[in-house]
Design goal:
- The chain is α+β, with helices and mostly antiparallel strands.
- The protein folds into two domains: 89 residues; 233 residues, 2-Layer Sandwich (BirA Bifunctional Protein, domain 2), CATH 3.30.930.
- The chain is built from eleven helices and ten strands.
- Strand 7 and strand 8 form a beta hairpin.
- Helix 2 packs antiparallel against helix 4.
- The protein starts with a helix and ends with a helix.
- 3,4-dihydroxyphenylalanine (DAH) binds next to strand 8, strand 9 and strand 10.
Length: 344
């Protein structure tokens, strides 16, 4: 019997060497160490042997069992290690390979312009605010001195959203001016704010008109604010954005929420004032509407026009890069043609 056990051990060791995965290891375990294995049988039948044989065989069988168990464990470890090494080898990154070129994004020209405009005004002490794109009739028109039957409503072709008992109610703001009212309602003077934002007009588009565009609104309210403050602030702004030499034109204009109202135009950069397609052959491009805040507007938000006065302005954002770079169609900004956008 001892001889048989020795042979069994040799055979077991040899077979273990050829087991290459956990499934084969398990088969090997069942075969040599399992309940039905020869070794277990021998150990179970020890009691039937004569005493002297029992001691020898028993001791030997137990040693063989131990050594088989150890060998199994070792083989398991070494298989696991080589599996790990192999998988690491397979996933190895070759750091000498050339990388993929990653395209770098950038801000939209409109965003860049808004940031620049805000910086100029922030240096003068203005705070930046933002307001809702969906507005009430009250803020977009009524509170700005444009009642329902006012002819000035024709200036603003409006996208209406809903109405209340036949009365039109909510809309997409046609300008950023409603934020003047929202801010004045809650803030006692002194006020110095600018408001960048999207505006919408229900109009046929052409080279200078889009149904969605950006404006920056400005408002300053305090004691003793005069037309000189308005003019100084806006001329300074124009010089910062368009350069010291650029000619600036300052003329009367009409907006219901200011009195008096003015319009500021810049000498056309494309034709240097000679007249071209971009400036409609006038040599000038209007970029700003402005004026002294109408006393009726102040009164409506509870600010006493006998004590306070203010100026306001609104400027078309896309006009700035159009002027600077000679872009002759505002629609290019929002077509998302990457060939256009990546130039800025
Ligand atoms: N909201 C006017 C528009 O969209 C522009 C404007 C004019 C704004 C005069 C002002 C202002 O604040 O004082 O045409």
């Amino acid at each position: 019997m001892l001889e048989e056990l020795e042979k069994l051990q040799l055979q077991a060791f040899a077979e273990l060497e050829s087991a290459v995965d956990s499934r084969e290891l398990e088969q090997w375990r069942i075969c040599y160490l399992g309940k039905k294995s020869r070794l277990t049988q021998v150990l179970r039948s020890l009691s039937t042997l004569p005493l002297d044989e029992r001691r020898n065989t028993g001791a030997r069988a137990n040693t063989i069992k131990k050594s088989l168990e150890n060998a199994l464990e070792e083989r398991g470890h070494s298989l696991e290690t080589s599996r790990l090494v192999l998988s690491l080898e397979n996933k190895r990154v070759d750091i000498t390979l050339p990388g993929y070129p990653m395209p770098i994004g950038r801000s939209h020209p409109t965003t860049q312009t808004i940031e620049e405009i805000c910086q100029v005004f922030q240096k003068m002490g203005f705070q930046v605010f933002e307001g809702p794109d969906v507005e009430w009739d009250y803020y977009n028109f009524e509170a700005l001195n444009i009642p329902a039957d006012h002819p000035a409503r024709d200036m603003f072709a409006t996208f209406w959203i809903d109405s209340n008992r036949g009365k039109r109610n909510r809309l997409l703001r046609t300008h950023t001016s409603p934020m003047q009212i929202r801010v004045m309602e809650h803030t006692p003077p002194p006020i110095r704010i600018i408001v960048p934002g999207r505006c919408y007009r229900y109009e046929a588009t052409d080279t200078t008109h889009e149904s969605m565009f950006y404006q920056v609104e400005g408002l300053a309210v305090d004691k003793n604010i005069t037309m000189a403050d308005l003019k100084g602030t806006l001329f300074d702004f124009c010089r910062c954005i368009f350069g010291e030499e650029r000619k600036v034109r300052f003329r009367c204009d009409y907006f219901p929420f200011v009195e008096p109202g003015v319009e500021i135009a810049i000498e056309c950069l494309a034709c240097h004032g000679n007249g071209c397609r971009i400036c409609g052959y006038s040599g000038w491009i209007e970029i700003l509407g402005a004026g002294m805040v109408n006393p009726d507007v102040l009164r409506r938000v509870g600010i006493d026009p006998e004590v306070y006065s203010g100026f306001a302005f609104g400027l078309g954002v896309e006009r700035v890069p159009m002027l600077r770079y000679g872009i002759d169609d505002i629609r290019l900004f929002y077509n998302n043609d990457i060939r256009f956008l990546r130039q800025f």
